[in-house]
Amino acid sequence: MTTDRTPHGQSDKPQPGRQEPRQRLLPAAHHEPPTRRSVLLEVVTRVLYPSVLVVAAYMVVAGEHRTGGGFPAGLVVGAGLSLRFLAGGPHEFGSAMPINPASLLGTGLAVMAGYGLVGELAGDGALSSTTWSVDLPVFGHLEGSTAMIFDAGVAILVVGLVVDVLRVMGPGVAPDDQEPEEEDQP
Amino acid sequence: MVALLALHLLAAVAVWRLSRHIGARSALIGAIAPAVTLGWLLYQAPDVLDGRPTATTMTWAPELGLSLPLRLDGLALLTAMVIAAVGMLVLQYSRHYLAGRHDGLARLLVVLVLFAGSMLGLVLADHVLALYVFWELTTVCSFLLIGAADRESRRAAMQALVVTSGGGFAMLLGLLMLGEQAGDYRISAILAAPPSGPWVEAALVLILVSAVAKSAQVPLTGWLSAAMVAPTPVSAYLHAAAMVKAGVYLVARFAPAFEATAAWRPIVIVVGLTTLIGSGWWALTQHDLKRLLAFGTASQLGLMFVLLGAGTRTAALAGATMLLAHAAFKSTLFLVVGAIEHEAGTRDRRDLSGVRHTAPALVAVAAVACVSMAGLPPTLGYLGKEAAYEAFVEPYPAGEWILAGMVAGSALTVAYTLRFLASLLVDRDADRFPARAPGPGFTAAPAVLSGAGLALGLAPPVADDLARLHARAYSATADTHYELALWHGFTPALALSVVTVALGVAVFMATHVLVPRARSFGGTVAVSDRASTASAALASAIRTAITRTHTGSLPRYTAIVLLSVLVVPTAAMLADDVSLASIRLWDRTSQGLVGAATIAACIAAAAIRHRITAILLVSAVGYLVAVLFAIHGAPELALTQVLVETLTVLVILLVLRRSSERAAASPPLRQSGRAAVALAVGAAMTVVALAVTSNHTPSRVVDDFFTATEEAGASNVVNTVLTDVRALDTIGEVTVLTVTATGVVSLVLVRRRTGGPPRPTDTRHNDTRHSGTRHSGTRHSDDDATSAEER
Asked: Where does the record place the MrpA C-terminal/MbhD domain (chain B) (predicted)?
């Protein structure tokens, strides 16, 4: 992984005689003023963020049997996203989650409702779950329940919730949302 | 029937997608849905006329006993035909009226089509809850259609919403009471075996209140005339033919079963007659032609209230005829006014001149409709009015008084009809205004409607068949076999009609004397509005109450919430005589240690002034509680608690990072007050928690949860409960979560855009653009401040 090695105060413009880094640590963190950036936080975020997503995915899958489930999974993703926000500012947050929170909320609800509808149409009754199990040579005994889909819906919705709140509480997150933030000071 | 409702939804989507490509022509696509509905209704009509209502039931959640029964009986067929026919014609008319308009075009047409669907659902619904849902859908559609343009229209929309949905709540309450008393929520079942008793009386009063609100009866007339700011197709459809008829429909629906109850007749007849006369008079004082028609509508609806609520066969026959006649003539006149306004840019009768020369066809169409409105032969309006008089010439308690009121109201109807017609016929000066005639497309829809009124008037047997669809709900006895006809011989009803017309013409001739008197009586031109706008007063009273209690002070809100929390459970415990037996301090030493740390963190958080530290301490309390959960063997709960705590802290930090580091000290008095509230609530909650845990009995459902988890092949009980056993609850909860989040976000965004929550007192002086610049200014200074802080 190539990183921009210049710490604090690096300017956006490529300086003469120096090659611009092929890849940035965080895609959009350079929009922040240099004084606000912390290389430590950016590195930690870069390293942690993918693992955070994996943990969230694990929680959805493992929810049937172990501690986890859709709600905590969504919160974990939300925590990861707020890490991106703190480390890289609103632009970075926007590039981490380019999807409109309203669509996330809607998708989450639609997945859950659709899951209920499929059960109804299949004749098992609304919101009923089915479990499949497979024995594979390398992975051993695998089990999957359709309730996972429901959990995924919850997770998507919770992510949408967190994104919604972060977007409003942090000023001008999306590039087109340049509305000034109002301070509540007496 | 379900397919028809779905078709409306589909048509609305089609209009939405197509309107940006083909503009107002998409209205014709939308007209398909009511047209198909009308076709289906005509196909079903012979069956229903023979007394075989069609019914289907869409099962929704049989476990909860929820279904959507739809039923097409006589009254439903009659009303649905009006809704579909007028809807189709109004959409055809909109294609011309809205041509070339882009702003909000899609919204207007989509909501119109959705409204047609909701209205259809309302009359077909055979379940009180479905009735309520469709009822409120029409209210919401009306709100969206009225408030599309400027500030005035938004205020009118808000007024309409407050009045009609307030009535809707009353209706929901009434319908639930009725359903509980009847033991069945299907309307047909309630009507077949009507319950009785004080609860039913109260329920009926509530239902009548909502009908009064929806049909703009006195004292809730004001919203209808304010709603005239809406585009004309909306006024013609919602506020003449369809939505305002919903209240009348409700009366007609319940009258056959409940007209004998004590409260029914007095309310229906007094309210109806008062509105008939009062609104008729107000109509006479209007210069704005649409408002003249709006008050006329309220007045006619008052007549229908009396007729459909009276509870005799002849009255029901007359009421059904009037319902048809009114839909035809009033929509016609609205559409004519809309066409003129489209050309002239005004609808003040004093501005018009020589319209009969510029648009002879349009004026002819209007004239035919006026004949019907005045109740003159050979129109449907005449048939209705004759039957109405006949209904109370027949023996009826206080029949002569009702007749007197109806003659007075109808005379006023004749007078304002003449006034309306005169404004189209008069040559005020040599110039013709408007100079151009509206296109032929504008004339088609009103011509069809007006022609329908005339044709039905000329064919009384057909009109009689239609009206009998509803009148059949009352058994015909030997002396109540009245049939609609143009000529019954020299009857008292005919004499009353002659008196009515004579009186009406006299009032019209005297209008120029009477109206200024009426105006000066109240002082201003707006007297009629103000007199009728008790509803606006109600709305403003509610607004004042809200602004008084909602001061925007967070500490105050919190205190109110906490004190209520303090009072209610404490009172419950005092009433319940709870023992605080067997208190164990802890099971394990670790619990005691974590508990002590929690208490320390609490005290520190309250004592520290530095904001960030205080927040971190509060979150430390949360984390420590999570540890307690974990020790107690609830990893799922602990995990969720930790994650929620983390996110909460992050969000609070995001918000707080720009405010000052230290919280300002409050005055000591206020501080000690808050401390007292906090301590009291804390102490009460401690006692409650102890009491609850010491009286703990194992829940009976827990075993079921474990069995269900095993059945689902899972081992995480909490998760199985959430995703399987109680999945419907989960969906409900996350839906609430979604709505809340959207609401909070909208409020924050509104605050940003307007510089504060909309306050009724100062909105008028608050220029949005101006405040916008002010805030971008603030933003710069904020940025400077923050960067200075961080440096």
From this structure: 598-659
